Prior knowledge:
Blueprint: E1 5-8, E2 19-22, E3 33-38, E4 41-46, E5 49-50, E6 60-61, H1 64-75, H2 87-99, H3 103-115, E7 121-122, H4 127-148, E8 155-156, H5 165-176, H6 180-193, H7 196-203, H8 209-216, H9 218-227, H10 231-253
Parallel strand pairs: 7-8
Antiparallel strand pairs: 1-2, 3-4, 4-5, 4-6
Helix pairs in contact: 1-2, 2-6, 3-5, 3-6, 6-7, 6-10, 7-8
Amino acid sequence: KVVEVSWLQRSRCAGLICKARIEAQQQRFCQDVSVAEEGGAHRVLLDGRMLKTQSKAVVALPSASLAEAVAEEWRAQGESINPPTMFLTRLTFAAIDGVQADRRKVADHALSFGRTDLLCYRAEYPDELVARQARVWNPLLDWAGKRFGAKLKHANGIGFKEQSPESILALERAIAETDDFKLAALHTAAMITGSLVLALAVAEGHLNAERAFAAATLDETFQSEKWGTDEEAQARLERLSAELSAAERFLKLLP
């Protein structure tokens, strides 16, 4: 039996992230979950049958540790499959059915977050927020310039700030150096944070997921300090933070 999945791309401003969505609440059909290695690829077996995507591609993982982690998500399911608890599986499907099927489309979408990077759009007031953004975001832009040669410029307000062709090309090269699995996680991290620089910082180990998410939600944190926390908004932030942490774990499980 093929495990049916689909993957959706959504923008951060819509409050959703890129994910491979396992069809909701399928009845669990397997009792035994195992991992097998064949020809250097690691596969997850459900009652001896290879896990497949909606496109009927066999799930072949690049490391034993990632395969075991995906298998553990399946072992943890109850009588019904609960997709939100299977983030590593969804990222794996996104890599196979998304990136491998149309890498250019995913790479271009990831690059778009560099063209309009969150870290480049600063508040004009109040002074306290302006100073906080500069203190947290400027060193990250400096890092991107040194690490990738992407010297991004920032400006006040929300008007589009065009970046130099050299900087965009540098970010494009950074994306091109990723394999399909790493790109799936990088793309997701960029969508969660609204920043390709933050996504690259997580992928490179320059920032952990917690610090990257704190940088991405600096404005929201400032507003909550001043006006209090909305429960629905807080729940959404916690969900996105957990997704980013899972993407970080996915990256660490790659070879």
